[in-house]
Design a protein that fits this description.
Elements lengths: L4 E6 L6 H11 L4 E7 L10 H12 L5 E7 L3 H8 L3 E6 L2 H17 L4 E6 L9 H9 L10 H14 L5
Parallel strand pairs: 1-2, 1-4, 2-3, 4-5
Length: about 170
């Protein structure tokens, strides 16, 4: 029996309810889901890699199934190959996401045609959630509890307290 492995890559800075929705649903599509926590040179993270790894591990612990949280700093297709994945799981929120993800899927297909990209539409109630916006709202003292779990809200509040709130 072949184990179907998928990877769900992202920066998860911080992990949101939207991410968690895609993780839960993606885990149903494969036997083993690897959450790939990475860095993005074009983003300035609120949390370092280890903090994000710990946050994601804590959040997925209750889901069940075979879910692994792994860091990577390489091309996504190289990471997928290393993990034995044949599926990349990506979440879509809006048309703008689709255009970017479609281009990335095409490039990834050129790099490694053995790996398919599967797009999952975010739940309608979660579509507007983006980590970037969660951080911005938190930095200006706004409520983020509708976008992240209570534990992540505490993590973000502690970080905002440490770095200082904007607009005060």
């Amino acid at each position: 029996m072949t184990i179907r492995t998928g990877v769900y890559p992202g920066t998860f800075d911080p992990v949101t309810l939207g991410h968690m929705d895609i993780i839960r649903r993606g885990a149903k599509l494969v036997d083993r889901l690897v959450i790939g926590v990475t860095t993005n040179p074009s983003k300035s993270p609120m949390f370092d890699l280890e903090e994000r790894m710990t946050m994601v591990q804590r959040e997925v612990a209750e889901i069940g199934g075979e879910i692994h949280v792994v860091s990577f700093d390489s091309l996504l297709m190289d990471f997928a190959e290393r993990e034995g994945a044949r599926v990349i799981v990506r979440g879509l929120r809006a048309v703008a996401d689709f255009e970017y993800e479609y281009q990335m899927a095409g490039m990834n297909q050129q790099i490694n045609p053995r790996v398919e990209t599967v797009f999952l539409m975010a739940d309608v109630s979660l579509q507007p959630i983006a980590s970037r916006l969660v951080k911005e709202i938190a930095l200006y003292g706004g409520p983020i509890d509708r976008f992240v779990t209570p534990a992540v809200a505490i993590d973000v509040a502690a970080r905002v307290e440490k770095v200082g709130r904007k607009g005060s």
